[in-house]
Structures are given as C-alpha cells and as structure tokens.
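Many introductory courses stop at the sequence. We go one step further.
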Amino acid sequence: MRKTTRYEVYGANSLWQMYKTVSFWKVTKNFIVIQLARYTPFLPVKNWLYRTFLKMKVGEKTSFGLMAMVDIMFPEKIQVGKNCVIGYNSTILAHEYLIKEYRLGDVVIGDEVMIGANTTILPGVTIGDGAIVSAGTLVHKDVPAGSFVGGNPMKIIYTKEQLDELRKDDPIYGTGKRSN
C-alpha cells in the first residue's frame, strides 16, 4: 500500500478546487522551472534548478533524462538519491487529484537507482537502493532494494538475490575478470 494522506473534498472534483490546496503562484513558478529543466541538456543545471527553486532533495551525480517530469504542485515531496538515472519522459508524482478526494505522498528514490524511460511513479512510493525499474512501468507500490521490476501492473522480475546470482560471472557486476 502506498503511503499517502487523503483529503476529502465536497462539491466539484478535487482538481477543480486545486488552488485551495496549493498556491496559483507556486504552481506558476514550478511550471516555469520544470519546463526549463525538462529541456536543458546540462545535468548539473537541472539538479540546481530542482534543488534551488523546487526544494527537491537530489543526490550528487543524479541524472534526469530529457523531458523527465516532476510533480508540478508538490515537488518538495520528492527525494532522489545519488548517482541515479531517471529515464527520458518519466513522471514522478507526489499528488493525485480524484473526484471526491486528493492524496499527497512523499516519493523516496534510493541511491544508484535506474528508472527506465516513460515510467510513472505514483505518490507515496519508496524505491530502494540499487533497484532497476524497466521502461514503461507504472510504479504503484514500494520497490525492494536491489530488485528489478517492470510492467503494468508492476511486478518483481528479479529479486536482489536472483540478480546477484545472474551477475556473479559478469565482468562488470560480478567476480569475473574483464577481457579486453
């Protein structure tokens, strides 16, 4: 189960009432900053924009691919560890606006996590250190550290232990010797 806080609304759907939950000016500022970051090819500049203007926690050497989209309303609820790759056109959400309620939840992505292209991460999810999320995945629940997950609905493809076994003779990951 995702860790989100639910807020009930009355009358029109929650998205229609969004400016009761978040300032119009905050959304406007975030929109401008996010659009600049989505298109800049300079990774250190993206991270600086996210940290400085959106109050996101972004680890050193983390890379956000072109067109990656972070939550426009609550980006400060997103934390990404060091040396991660967030793939092309992926989306990280910290909110959900529904008909009769809206939900907010922190997103925590550990260190050295690989997020494939076109992945959507829902609010209230934690992705453990060293996890790999395949392209096009809908991350709707926590991802164990070191595991490889994918699909819609997301499923564990390999656990950390299974991956370690597969990689033991790999020259990059395992104890095998590199050949030139």
